[in-house]
Design brief:
By secondary structure, the protein is mainly alpha-helical. 66% of the residues lie in helices and 1% in strands. Among the domains are: 65 residues; 193 residues, MetI-like (MetI-like fold, Orthogonal Bundle).
Length: 375
């Protein structure tokens, strides 16, 4: 038997270091230059940003006139955005024609709304049920008393004087709060086995979805008073609220119905096998799962509703966008080449802040409720 041994007399050449899988350079290589097409798109994207960002920055910040600026500075040839105009007209953009001496009342409404609504968005805050009751039942009554007045020594303030961001928030909050449960009822009614209920729900949903929102607002403004008793008048704001709520609820019903159809039939049968009634099965088993599946669609409807509030100007309401347009046309002392652009840019920023906040909160809720595959 022969022993064969081998002893290496030379070192193995060093191998190249492995590619980095973490750090800024690794992220850039993976997300921006992973393939030749990605590299081309990245280069074109950078060139587009270099083309659009510098002039936008100069207009918004670099050459802009600050809040303490003057009209003469805004009218300069090289002046950018006139933020002094926004600062001086901010109260009109927020409150509309609401009397200046009474603007403390909308401020209290805003503060109470934030105080009651923000805890509802935080999952771990206790007393959710009490908070929800205060926000859905007590807060609307208190807000109406404060805004409308006429009682408790408050000066009466007709809705014709309401405007700006105040109207935008009122219509959007009321529309969202009322259209969501109404949409759920319509979705359940469309799946009902009773022909009368199903036919009524289908007819309502299809009729509303086949008509533009502008037409709905016109009908709410002109035709809705015809169904009221003789001599009864309806406030313009109430008409707009009814039209927006009905329009959004029809779309919400279809979103919820999509979530209901995504639930396996076994879930319905499991609830029935436990002896649960129809309402109990829906409340405890079906709807929680269905609504979790369609969170993006629900929030998408909320965002659309918030942006569609700008259409209420056709019934005589001055929302934020219409308030900006009105002031752009009437504020002759602030007339300059960039005044109108600055006003519309301000309105766009306000809409973007609210819509982006709803979008981010939607993503947060999706991640928090995505428990189906967790271990």
């Amino acid at each position: 038997m022969t022993n064969i041994g081998f002893v290496r007399s030379e070192l193995i050449p060093a191998k190249p270091a492995p590619n980095r899988i973490s750090g800024p350079m690794a992220w850039v290589q993976k997300n921006l230059f992973a393939t030749p097409m990605d590299a081309v798109l990245t280069v074109f994207g950078m060139l587009f940003l270099l083309w659009i960002v510098p002039p936008l920055f100069n207009f918004v910040i670099g050459q802009a006139v600050g809040p303490s600026g003057t009209v003469e500075e805004c009218r300069a040839v090289d002046a950018g955005a006139c933020w002094a105009y926004i600062y001086n007209e901010m109260k009109f953009f927020i409150y509309g024609f609401f009397d200046i001496a009474e603007q403390w009342r909308p401020n209290i409404v805003f503060a109470l709304g934030a105080l009651l609504f923000v805890p509802l968005l935080i999952p771990k805050v206790p007393f959710k049920r009490v908070n929800a009751i205060l926000f859905l039942l007590v807060y609307p009554a208190v807000s109406y008393i404060l805004l409308a007045g006429g009682v408790f020594g408050l000066l009466e303030m007709p809705t014709q004087k309401w405007g700006g961001l105040l109207i935008t928030l009122i219509i959007s909050v009321v529309g969202i709060t009322l259209s969501f449960p109404l949409g759920i009822v319509l979705a359940l009614g469309r799946q009902s086995t009773l022909p009368v209920i199903k036919t009524l729900c289908v007819a309502f949903i299809e009729l509303i979805r086949a008509v533009p929102l502008i037409t709905i607002l016109f009908m709410a403004s002109i035709m809705l008073p015809l169904f009221m008793p003789q001599g009864t008048t309806m406030d313009k704001l109430l008409r707009a609220l009814v039209g927006v709520t009905l329009f959004t609820s029809a779309y919400m019903a279809e979103v919820v119905r999509g979530g209901l159809q995504a639930i396996p039939r076994g879930q319905y049968e499991a609830g029935a096998s436990l002896g649960l009634g129809y309402s109990q099965r829906m409340y405890f088993i079906i709807l929680p799962q269905a609504l979790k599946h369609v969170i993006p669609g629900i929030v998408n409807n909320f965002i659309s509703l918030f942006k569609d509030t700008s259409l209420v100007y056709i019934v005589g309401m001055k929302d934020l966008l219409e308030a900006v347009k009105t002031k752009n046309d009437s504020a002759l002392e602030w007339q300059s080449s960039n005044t109108a652009t600055t006003g519309y840019l301000f309105a766009a920023m306000v809409f973007w802040i609210f819509c982006f906040s709803m979008s981010r909160y939607s993503i947060f809720m999706e991640r928090r409720l995505n428990t189906g595959h967790k271990r």
